[in-house]
Amino acid sequence: MKENHGKGDWTIYFWVPGSPVGWQRAGRTSKGGRAVIYTQNKTRSYEALIQQHYIDVAERFGHSLTPYDGPVVLYVQACRPIPTSRPEWWKRAAAKHQLGCTTTPDFDNLGKVVGDSLTGLAWVDDRQIIDGRVVKLYDERPGLRIHIKHLPKPIKCDMFNTILTPLTEWRV
Predict the structure, then answer these.
(1) What is the pLDDT of residues 5-28, one digit of tens each?
(2) Domains in the chain, start-ordered, CATH in brackets?
(3) Between the CA of residue 68 and those of 1, 58, 171, what are the distances in Å?
(4) I need a surface site. Which of 37, 64, 128, 170 has the fewest CB within 10 A?
(5) Which residues in the chain land under pLDDT 70?
(6) Which strands form 129-139's sheet, in the order they lie side by side?
């Protein structure tokens, strides 16, 4: 991890082990005749797990936990477990990332759970994410690979040609 938090141009990679969980629709109930909307327990627990792994890596590298207020790039690789019920040729192809994962959770719900969980930690608000990508694949080691890049303020238009890192270049 490169530290330059106050001025942007900072990158962190981290891994959240376990089968990825997407953001779940808010729950609704009534209390005293009034509608109450709440975050589902599964979503709240997974957000806490993502936060803890971010904090662990940030502290290990001496990074300040003050949220960044500039533009951010977010890449997420969601690695689902390889199904044991599939034929051997299929499992080998999945392990080499030659097959995309078309199962749940949806890519947008994976991006949302990461964006929401790191609001107030890696950035002030997830509206600062100017480039985001979620790739779903199978892996022998299920989990989320998260790559965050804080960009300098103000961002120049020609920077868009240089900020996009192919997903094949990074791996946690």
Answers:
(1) 445 678 899 999 999 998 765 656
(2) 5-163 (3.30.1330.70)
(3) 15, 13, 23
(4) 37
(5) 1-8, 24-30, 35-40, 155-172
(6) 10-17, 143-150, 72-81, 129-139
